[in-house]
Specification:
Length: 405
């Protein structure tokens, strides 16, 4: 990966252009969703990571803006997990049965490997189309016979979609990656019929702040939304949140159904805490984050000093960020495993941990497995129960590092 690229710095809030207040800053942090081949080790970019709060609309956002070109080699998929596939199937069932998404035209922006669109096509007889800039994931879509535009979704690229205007637009875990939120939502408006619905799912910033999810901040996630900040953004474009719920996926996400309303829209969401309280919450989070990372570093150094050998399960973004910030290297973790075959044989940025198929756990066993994929902890323990039966141990990272009894 080229380490010589320009990183822009955000000067004002993405939603309301108000002044920002920084509440944490780290130096020399790798871009979490990028991976390396052996020849590139040591040449990857290490960037600052600065989180800031807008006290007007409540949006938490990063100062650093990484180039969108990193997504052309994006490799994250969630469908290696059975529980994640089951969740996507539940989303489709809800859309078909509760939102009447049958025989409709549907776009998914950032459609990943096309799993959700395939389910919508097969279970709702919908005409589907995806936007996906990653070359790896485009091929996965094609393998499932999902038509896809090999580009980013934007006003300039609407012509790539042959089924416009559409009845439904799905944006799952994409909005947080977008720098120009207003340009993006403008393009959504152009692509959607007047009676269409917009499905949005994003990480829930309240869950992050309340549950101490310190490694959920990384460069690809530019914005961290609450219901209040989402409503502030969407109401400007004639969208009303008609249904919302909190779901457990990715340790806590917001799922919204939005409809277009003509005329003036009153803000229907109320901030649940005053802005000065939110600022204090953010500063307390930053203080606790430093303590957590130090405790994590001490825990693994002590265990390794006692001769414990570790492997890690899960090699996605949060693994990369927690290992980097807590200074966990190959001195502490011998290797990582992941069900995502797109990652096998690659190395994590910054910490240079090699990633293997889970069969590596039997080929080269260790004393304990660190569960970095915290959202799937129970599923991983069940999947690797034979490891425990042979005396292996598991380490949970939340709410603090500990062996699971």
């Amino acid at each position: 990966m080229d380490s010589n690229f320009d990183v822009l710095l955000l000067k004002a809030c993405r939603i309301c252009n108000s002044e920002l207040i920084d509440f944490f800053h780290y130096e020399n942090v790798p871009i979490a969703g990028t991976y390396l081949i052996e020849a590139d080790l040591g040449g990857e970019p290490l960037l600052p990571l600065t989180a800031a709060l807008c006290c007007n609309c409540g949006l938490i956002q990063l100062r650093e803006i990484v180039p969108s070109s990193i997504y052309t080699s994006y490799r994250f998929i969630g469908t290696g997990s059975a529980s994640y596939r089951a969740y996507l199937e539940q989303v489709v069932e809800s859309l078909v049965s509760e939102q009447d998404v049958r025989n409709k035209k549907v776009i998914e922006i950032g459609c990943n490997d096309g799993y959700l669109l395939k389910q919508l096509r097969d279970k709702g007889c919908n005409l589907v189309f995806g936007y996906e800039p990653s070359s790896q994931l485009q091929q996965a879509c094609q393998d499932s016979d999902i038509p896809v535009a090999r580009t980013f979704f934007s006003s300039d690229n609407l012509g790539e979609c042959p089924i416009l205007p559409v009845d439904v637009i799905v944006i799952r875990h994409v909005l947080e990656h977008i720098d120009d939120l207003h340009g993006f939502i403008n393009a959504v408006c152009s692509a959607l019929t007047d009676t269409g619905i917009l499905i949005i799912e994003v990480p829930d910033v309240d869950a992050i702040l309340t549950n101490g999810l310190y490694f959920h901040f990384y460069h690809e996630h530019l914005s961290y939304f609450s219901l209040f900040s989402l409503e502030k953004l969407l109401s400007q474009y004639g969208f009303q949140i008609s249904m919302h719920k909190r779901v457990s996926i990715h340790s806590g996400s917001l799922y919204l159904v939005c409809k277009r309303i003509h005329g003036t829209i009153a803000n229907i969401m109320e901030s649940r805490r005053a802005n000065n309280d939110l600022e204090k919450t953010c500063r307390d989070f930053a203080t606790d984050m430093k303590t957590y990372l130090k405790d994590l570093e001490i825990f693994f150094k002590r265990q390794c000093a006692e001769g414990v050998r570790f492997a890690g399960f899960g090699a996605a973004h949060r693994t990369n960020i927690v290992c980097s910030l807590a200074k966990m290297t190959r001195e502490h973790i011998e290797y990582l495993v992941d069900n995502n075959h797109f990652l096998h044989g690659l190395f994590t940025p910054g910490t240079h941990l090699r990633i293997y198929d889970p069969s590596k756990l039997w080929q080269e066993p260790t004393d304990a497995i660190i569960i970095f994929a915290t959202s799937f902890e129970d599923e991983i323990i069940e999947e690797q129960r034979a490891f425990r039966e042979k005396g292996g141990r598991f380490v949970s990272l939340l709410p603090k590092p500990r062996y699971i009894t």
